Amino acid sequence: MKFYFFFFTFVLWGLSNSCSLAKDSSAVRMKIHSLQASMGSAEIAVLLTDEGGKRFLPIAVGGDQALSIQLGRDGRAIKRPLTHDLMANIFKSLKVQVERITITDLREGVYYADVELRQNGRTHRIDSRPSDAIALSLRVNAPIYAMPHLLKPIADLPEEEREETAAPTAVTKWGMNVQPLTQALADFFGRREGVLVADVIENSPASQSGLRAGDIVLRISKEEIRNLETFLEAASNDTNRVEIGVLRGDQNLSFIIKTSQ
How big is the CA angle at 225 (ends 70 and 257), to the nearest 5 degrees? Predict the structure, then answer.
């Protein structure tokens, strides 16, 4: 929490002590390609590519930041706002526009980024971790840029890592969205089977049962869930009461979803 206290303190300082900075015209517009495993660590790499798909930039983030980025990318809201949702809401209330975020440098193995803000015609540039800047940009529709010296040719990216992250699948009757476990997510959670709960809609049957975004569904009733196909098959059964077995952290939990016919 200290980081976010200092972040907002610095934002308010920046807004009251304007330091207008020109945009760097050499920065390259980027987009999120996928989330990939970081080999040999518990982190996940957010893989950015340029708009032409010729260069890429991997940014290692922790599990919480990866989930926040994925939720922001999918445009999904959860029951209570995450810190990045809070940041976006504060900026909106203060009529502060996030113009863009730029990944600026790599020093001693650490990436640096700037968040460019505008208020009352004045521009301010705030230092940020790339993971926080990216998660924020997705919630305010701000473009992502990176300095060209940080980018690598797409040919250097292993073929198996070029597959884009699958979009979530809606399970309307339960009020939740799920997605397959990509290689990155499988490596992070230490599982190859199951599906990830990407989002749970507020006051839905899934929400009322206790399911949360980030849970991994392993079982529906007595059916083991190996992948998205087996999940959808098991979820298609016409019943108004179903038991869902999930992995949450290192805990195996069960929840009952009840729907009206």
Answer: 80
What pLDDT score was predicted for residue 189?
64
pLDDT level of residue 251 (50, 70, 90 thresholds): confident
Residue whose token pair is 């029951």: 79
Q: How far is CA 182 from CA 82, 176, 188, 192, 228, in A?
A: 23, 19, 10, 9, 11
Q: Which of 28, 18, 23, 25 is nearest to 52 (CA)?
A: 28
Asked whether the whole model's pTM tops 0.90, one would answer no
DSSP 214: T
Residue pLDDT, tens place only, 3-58:
444 445 445 444 444 443 445 679 999 998 877 655 455 577 888 989 888 898 98
Provide CATH code, domain 166-258.
2.30.42.10
Round to whole Å and give the CA distance between 98 and 123. 10
Ranges of each domain in the chain: 2-159, 166-258
Q: How far apart are the C-alpha atoms of 153 and 143, rounded to whole Å?
A: 21
For residues 234, 240, 243 and 245, what is the CA-based torsion angle, rounded to 10 degrees? 50
Tokens at residue 80, please?
């209570």
